[in-house]
């Protein structure tokens, strides 16, 4: 690099940005409205939000561990207690959805076992096949033949009729 460099060709930028001179004495309305907004709207909202977050941090609530209380079964509801009927119906629908998911999970496990074992699936996946048979039989016993419009009342009547048939078969066998 040459010792005699031309400093005029490579000027150094100024160290401080020059301040622009105001041409008017009227304050900027945008800055005024921004300041008013910050103090009137933003500061209280931010304060309330931070206070709520501090309160929630004290009481951590994990929604995925929520446990619903069991409502009375339809057979336990009093006559004319329509709220109890509604809650029992909602509980029955939740139970049916849970049972459907259980059947689906067991079915997926069996499919994964068959995929993993290949030709040896019949001997290595026997426990999964047995479990699927038990789960689907239990599901069919409880919810089978109810149709799309099945509800808690028809399911309860189905279970009652099945119990009566079992008692009759037991009485006939003991005679």
From TrEMBL:
Topology term for the membrane: Peripheral membrane protein
Record's protein name: NADH dehydrogenase [ubiquinone] 1 beta subcomplex subunit 10
InterPro entries for the chain: NADH_UbQ_OxRdtase_su10, NDUFB10
PANTHER family: NADH DEHYDROGENASE [UBIQUINONE] 1 BETA SUBCOMPLEX SUBUNIT 10, NADH-UBIQUINONE OXIDOREDUCTASE PDSW SUBUNIT
Compartmental location: Mitochondrion inner membrane
CC annotations in GO: mitochondrial inner membrane; respiratory chain complex I
Main location: mitochondrion
Function: Accessory subunit that is involved in the functional assembly of the mitochondrial respiratory chain complex I. Complex I has an NADH dehydrogenase activity with ubiquinone as an immediate electron acceptor and mediates the transfer of electrons from NADH to the respiratory chain.
Assigned keywords, A-Z: Electron transport, Membrane, Mitochondrion, Mitochondrion inner membrane, Respiratory chain, Transport
Short name of any one Pfam family annotated for the protein: NDUFB10
Region (Disordered): 1-23
Family, as annotated: Belongs to the complex I NDUFB10 subunit family.
Domain of life assignment: Eukaryota
């Amino acid at each position: 690099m040459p010792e005699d460099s031309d400093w005029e060709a490579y000027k150094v930028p100024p160290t401080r940005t020059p301040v622009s001179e105001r041409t008017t004495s009227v304050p900027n309305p945008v800055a005024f409205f921004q300041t008013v907004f910050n103090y009137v709207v933003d500061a209280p909202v931010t304060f309330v939000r931070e206070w709520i977050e501090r309160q929630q941090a004290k009481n951590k609530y994990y929604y995925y561990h929520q446990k619903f209380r069991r409502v009375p079964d339809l057979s336990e509801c009093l006559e004319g207690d329509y709220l109890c009927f509604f809650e029992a119906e909602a509980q029955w629908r939740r139970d049916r959805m849970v049972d459907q998911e259980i059947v689906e999970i067991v079915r997926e496990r069996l499919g994964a076992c068959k995929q993993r074992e290949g030709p040896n699936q019949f001997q290595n996946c026997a426990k999964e096949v047995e479990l699927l048979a038990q789960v689907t039989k239990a599901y069919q016993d409880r919810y089978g033949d109810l149709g799309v419009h099945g509800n808690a009342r028809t399911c309860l009547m189905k279970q009652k009729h099945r119990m009566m048939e079992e008692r009759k078969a037991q009485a006939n066998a003991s005679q």
